[in-house]
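Field reference: sequence -> structure
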Amino acid sequence: MAAFVKDLDGRYVYASPYLLATMGKLMGLDWQGKTDADFWPPEAAALIHAHDNAAMHGGGAQVFTRVMQLDDGPHSVLLIEFPLPTADGGIGVGGIAVDVTESSKTQTDHDQLAAVIDHTADSVMVVGLDGQITYVNPAFEEVTGYSRDEVIGQNPRLLQSGLQTAAFYEHMWTSLAAGVPWAGELVNRRKDGSFFIEKAVIVPVGSANGELAGYMAVKRDVTSERALSASSARSVSERALILEVVRDLRPGATPETTAQAICRKVARLNGIAAAQIVVFEIDGRVLPIGQAVAEREDPPLCQLPFQIGRRLHARAALGPWTEPWANRQGRAYDQLVENAGPSALAYAPVCYGERLIGLLVVESVDVANKNATADLLPTVVEFADLAGALIGPEVAGRLDAQTGREHVSDIIARRAFLPVFQPIVDIVLDKIVGYEALTRFTDGSDPETMFAEASAARLGVELEIATLKAALAAAEALPGWAWLNVNASAEFILAGEHLRFLISESRRPIVVEVTEHEAIVDYPAFRAAMVALGAKTQFAVDDAGTGFTSLRHILELRPAFVKLDRWLVADLETDEARQAMIVGLGHFARKTGCLLIAEGVETDREIAVLRSLGIRLGQGYALGRPRAADPTPVLIAVGG
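Structure field:
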């Protein structure tokens, strides 16, 4: 089937691919803007011009049979031409044509035209003056879902969606009643209730005697085209909003501030009533940290019920989804957005890496398209990904801290630990001179990791108090002449009061070993805290040569003992560089008035080398493993 459109001066502005394939040689590549006089002999061009005038000024669609001389001979062509409004307010002409040369000679023009319309991809509907449908083609049935038998005799109003005003239809029928064709877009409803958009041309149809007989509508379903156009426009808008969010962020912005900024941007998208970002707490609660309603001030954050929070968390683990909106009892947020007119909800998980931390919830208001919320889902996912990237690190850190806090609190409450003691040995006299109090956790957790977790959860001092109490109580079973080495973080020492009280209760000499969990920022304040613990309390610095420990560290604190880390002792008998370093540290210790304690001593050969290098004190598996307190003195037989 061929189709064409001409402007009011008869110049071609459109030709269908079939028309160009049939007459391309005649029309040439530069056919646009030319008239039939440029292609046909004068007699044929005059006839075509007369038909065009009849279509433009005859009050409706006109049907013609025309013989056209093509390359392979004459062809009979059946034409339906109708007036079309132009952009400048004039009237042009549109036409549909079919080659009927090979058709039966007895077939009437009417039957031939019906065959053409039956096979066109555009929907065609004919309505009588009484407002009843008299004809629809198969394309109409396919687009609307109604069969021909269901609509013949019905009023076209059965297709109306209710989304276009009475004034819209009044204007359309006023034009048609005046004999003027109408062109525009209709939002109609299919038999299944779904909405679709049609680009329509409706023309008055004249009878044989020239009187108005009815109306014919030729319509094309453009729902997908409009959706694609809207999607493209929305994509541009989304990118702009995402850039705005990133651009407007301020250094140090909290997750709440960032989440609120994202919600405000999302609520500006077309078809959005409201947006909300929530985070999943470790206790199963859902905590809103941002929400915005379109064209309204930011509403207060409303807590979600526990059961709803658990359901959302379980569903979010499966990925994004949509559901109809409902005003659910007990959900303050539903009442909050009710007046905004939401029709559906779209959800997208907010993740940090592979970890689910929250959810972006968007209320859609596009009731014209039942698939609009599903179409919106990629946008929601993109903003959820942005939220995860921006707030994920801090939110995940908070959740980890909450998890750690509960874990550490439980350990403290259950006293799920026990003290053990490792001897500190004078390797020259082969005798124990002190013990280091260590902690073992009943669940097998690594002590260093557990104390670090407690510090991150801001329960470090509480765990140190609990373990130190247990160690001091258990140490009562140790020989009274041995000093007790206890570990304390810089934070615990600076806190002062609890540590001072605990060690004042002990009858034995106490050495407080400064652990390497954190740096000491204010040395004068730290020295003051050391003095406050009393003159009987001595200090040791742990792991010399690693972590925060440095020569300045030792010089600032002036400890009684400095512990040499295991890495200096390992393979000491074969490594002259390590030996030289220990000799140098020994000289440094003598000059500064402290004693060195070699940690991690594991072989008799290491003991022998340390002794030869002038190191007097040692600690390690070769000298005694950590164990529960035993009041019986232990003699150490060391190598050499």
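Note: DSSP finds 20 helices and 23 strands in the chain.
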